[in-house]
Recover the amino acids of this structure.
């Protein structure tokens, strides 16, 4: 742990400048350490002298205001706290758009290995259902809104487009038209299922962290992007659908697959924005190229036209 004044990076100095402003922490020794993981912000664990609570403090990454609504993120975090699927939150630095929450030291970040276990997947499905059943969030931002936002941003900042950009965009438009014609099922969605955002307790229970991308969105998008992130095979996707809805339905699976493609288009384009604006030590270009490739693998599936018709 580092003491105040020891910071050398911009993020460390920003953290120090922020946490010394927290009124309940005045006059107490503060120490901190970086927390690895995450590709939007710089994260820290903060300890406060004589305070049994450990704190998680998130310093917003450069340019993230382009696609993260911090007020909406705070509202989503507090809603998750209220229904006991997220950590306690604190409003100490809300005025600086810096998120402060409880550091859950008794839990560990999940990995892809956890997702191999059916019991873990069942717990995650239950967490999703609870979040989806909660009251609507103040921000409605569908996957279509996200993709359009990132397309505009890449154009504005001169970001990279793949050679088949026009073709990918047409596929997106066709999928959007089919989904909108079928009607959208909007609920509070997490929208960001990186393994590190699922914290596992010794009892196998799961809590969510990091609600920056949360919004009212299509229900099945949340499940589909989770599947994509963990590379679930189709039999596991069918299991997820059955666990969530109580039954498996081919139409639901078609919708699921279409949202997997949209999720990859969304995040590949997001990556090309980050490639231009972020200062984090992460290869966003490589990440985006990989997401583009996986989107193509779905769009080139011979069943793709039948998936769109089934919506």
């Amino acid at each position: 742990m580092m003491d105040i004044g020891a910071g050398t990076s911009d993020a460390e100095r920003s953290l120090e400048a922020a946490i010394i402003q927290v009124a309940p922490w005045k006059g107490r020794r503060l120490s901190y350490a970086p927390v690895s993981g995450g590709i939007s912000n710089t994260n820290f664990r903060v300890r406060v002298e004589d305070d049994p609570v450990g704190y998680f403090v998130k310093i917003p990454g450069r340019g993230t205001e382009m696609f993260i609504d911090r007020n909406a993120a705070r509202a989503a975090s507090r809603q998750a706290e209220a229904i006991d699927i997220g950590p306690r939150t604190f409003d100490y630095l809300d005025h600086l758009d810096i998120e402060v929450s409880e550091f859950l030291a008794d839990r560990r970040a999940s990995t892809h290995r956890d997702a191999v276990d059916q019991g873990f997947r069942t717990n995650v499905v239950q967490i999703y259902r609870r979040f989806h059943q909660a009251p609507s969030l103040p921000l409605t931002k569908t996957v279509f809104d996200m993709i359009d936002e990132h397309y505009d941003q890449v154009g504005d900042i001169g970001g990279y487009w793949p050679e088949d950009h026009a073709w990918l965009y047409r596929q997106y438009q066709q999928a959007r038209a089919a989904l909108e014609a079928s009607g959208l099922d909007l609920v509070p969605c997490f929208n960001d299922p990186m393994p590190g955002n699922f914290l596992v307790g010794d009892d196998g229970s799961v809590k969510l962290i990091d609600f920056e991308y949360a919004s009212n969105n299509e229900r099945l998008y949340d499940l589909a992007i989770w599947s994509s992130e963990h590379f679930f095979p189709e039999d596991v996707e069918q299991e997820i659908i059955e666990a969530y809805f109580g039954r498996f339905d081919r139409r639901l699976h078609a919708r699921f697959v279409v949202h997997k493609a949209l999720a990859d288009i969304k995040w590949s384009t997001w990556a090309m924005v980050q490639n231009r604006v972020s200062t984090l030590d992460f290869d966003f270009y490589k990440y985006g190229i990989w997401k583009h490739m996986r989107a193509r693998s779905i769009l080139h599936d011979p069943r793709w036209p039948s998936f769109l018709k089934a919506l």
